[in-house]
Amino acid sequence: GPRAGQGPPGTLVSSDDTPGGHIFGPDQLGEDLVGLPDDEELERLRSFCAMLPETTEIDGLGHPTFRVATKAFAIYEVVDGLPTACLKVSLEMQAELTGRDGFAPEPHTGEHGWTLVPLDGRAHWDEVDELVIASYRLVAPSEYVAQLDALLGPA
């Protein structure tokens, strides 16, 4: 019959049979931990968002997501291998932006103004910052917009 300590496949076996008693090797922990964005574009976006009033960062399904109150205003994604910010803008601004290389409506939420903004140099950071602020203004509660105005001066 089976040796002592051997169970059905996938069950823990005694540490005598398996060094350390682990079932999974480090390469079997799943792809979720691999390639999590931690690059300079994310750091630049993160440091800018952190200056805005009452901003928090959460992990939104593997995407660093910057929120004010409970609403997202900037999401960092890698789209087709390129660093990208997903920001909410007015539909008029979206129409203007998406005529340019690298800008596109977000596939699922584009009709609400969510727009993919390239962070690979096709948009200058000054412009990205303005778009982040515009997105913040669209979603933030009025008291936080007032704090922003106190920092930056009114839009």
What structural keywords apply?
155 residues; six-stranded antiparallel β-sheet; 28% helix; alpha+beta
Descriptive report:
By secondary structure, the protein is of the alpha+beta class. Helix content is 28%, strand content 23%. The chain contains 4 helices and 6 strands; from the N terminus they run H-E-E-E-E-H-E-E-H-H. The chain has helices spanning 40-49, 91-97, 125-139, 142-152, and strands at 55-60, 63-68, 71-79, 82-88, 104-105, 114-118. A 6-stranded antiparallel sheet has the order 1-2-3-4-6-5, with helices on one face. A hairpin with an 8-residue loop joins strand 5 (104-105) and strand 6. The radius of gyration is 22 Å and the shape is globular. The chain starts with 39 loop residues before the first helix and ends with a helix.
Biggest sheet strand order reads 1-2-3-4-6-5
Query: Which word captures the global form?
Result: globular
* Strand element count: 6
Class by helix and strand content?
A: alpha+beta
Rg estimate, integer Å? 22 Å
Work out the strand percent: 15-25%
Through-space gap between termini:
78 Å
Order of helices and strands: HEEEEHEEHH
Number of helices: 4
* Oligomeric state of this protein: single chain
Main β sheet profile: 6 strands, antiparallel
Q: Percent of residues in helical segments?
A: 25-40%
- List the uncertain runs: 11-37
Mean pLDDT: 83
In short:
The protein has 155 residues and is α+β, with helices and mostly antiparallel strands.
Structural topology:
Layout (H helix, E strand, L loop, with lengths): L39 H10 L5 E6 L2 E6 L2 E9 L2 E7 L2 H7 L6 E2 L8 E5 L6 H15 L2 H11 L3
Antiparallel strand pairs: 1-2, 2-3, 3-4, 4-6, 5-6
